[in-house]
Design goal:
Structural class: mainly beta
Shape: globular
Strand order of the largest sheet: 14-15-16-17-21-22
Order of helices and strands: EEEEEEEEEEEEEEEEEEEEEEH
Number of strands: 22
Number of helices: 1
Distance between the termini: 46 Å
Radius of gyration: 19 Å
Largest sheet: 6 strands, antiparallel
Helix content: under 10%
Oligomer: single chain
Length: about 260
């Protein structure tokens, strides 16, 4: 089956097609107003082996979960940051934020990982069965352009993040088991990242020149410039000292950014 999400209309819409005869098997009901938690126009879709997920675009950075084996039963998850929807909506209804779930999601273990194309620096993970939402601070700033699962790690790309006084971009690596977060300086405009097990392959994009590059980074040269430990509520716990031991005093967000 092929699931296709659309941008436009009232709330998110999606279609399901047969890959055998290309017949339309299902579509959302345009005549029924969507629930409050229904995300805006779909920006991304992902199949995790059990569920199909869709990420919202513009007005509601929410996520839908579709069960292909149960009549396309759909669940809705509203993505929030400290109790507020990403971005800020002003009194006149205009927005100061970019309300987009990244167009790359990643499923690893029991969790679905996603970022947003605003400046909150949070990687959100949603439990694939219970729909519990946890927020992992990445340590990077600027919009997140993609989240990827490579091996047993999760990687997120930040094309305009400032790392060690440069604005080239950043790649964040998250260990789902310990929530250890490693921050790496990245090529300018880093967009997507994949690996063949030996090297990392990074795509970049420059909106000013409309040019892109494919960069290969040998794994041994892929050294982080900062390491710390995150909580599941969008804050930091502890970092590690020069000997690789956990410091007893957790950093504040300001101290983390000062260290970087």
């Amino acid at each position: 089956k092929l699931f296709v999400g659309t941008g436009g209309g009232v709330g998110s819409t999606y279609y399901v097609f047969s890959l055998t005869n290309y017949a339309l098997l299902f579509q959302t009901n345009f005549n029924v107003p969507p629930p409050v938690a229904f995300p805006g126009w779909l920006h991304t879709m992902h199949y995790d082996g059990k569920y199909v997920w869709g990420g919202g675009y513009i007005t509601k950075p929410g996520v839908i979960r579709i069960d292909p084996t149960n009549g396309y039963a759909t669940s809705y998850v509203s993505i929030t940051n400290a109790g507020n929807v990403y971005g800020v909506v002003l009194n006149d209804g205009t927005s100061t934020g970019i309300f987009k779930v990244t167009d790359d999601m990643a499923a690893l273990g029991n969790w679905l990982y996603l970022g947003t194309e605003d400046t909150n620096g949070i990687v959100t993970r949603i439990h694939r069965d219970t729909l519990e939402v946890q927020r992992i601070r990445s340590g990077a700033s600027g919009p997140c352009y993609g989240v990827f699962a490579i091996g047993n790690m999760v990687y997120a790309t930040y094309p305009s993040a400032s790392v060690v006084d440069t604005n080239s971009g950043a790649i964040v690596r998250i260990d789902p088991a310990t929530l250890r977060v490693d921050l790496f300086r990245a090529p300018a405009g880093v967009n997507e990242i994949h690996s063949d097990g030996t090297s990392f392959y990074v795509t970049t994009y420059d909106a000013n020149t409309n040019k892109s590059l494919l960069v290969r980074i040998p794994e041994l040269e892929f050294n982080s410039v900062a390491t710390f430990y995150a909580s599941t509520n969008g804050s930091f716990r502890q970092d590690i000292d020069a000997s690789g031991n956990l410091n007893s005093n957790p950093y504040t967000v300001a101290a983390i950014y000062g260290k970087i």
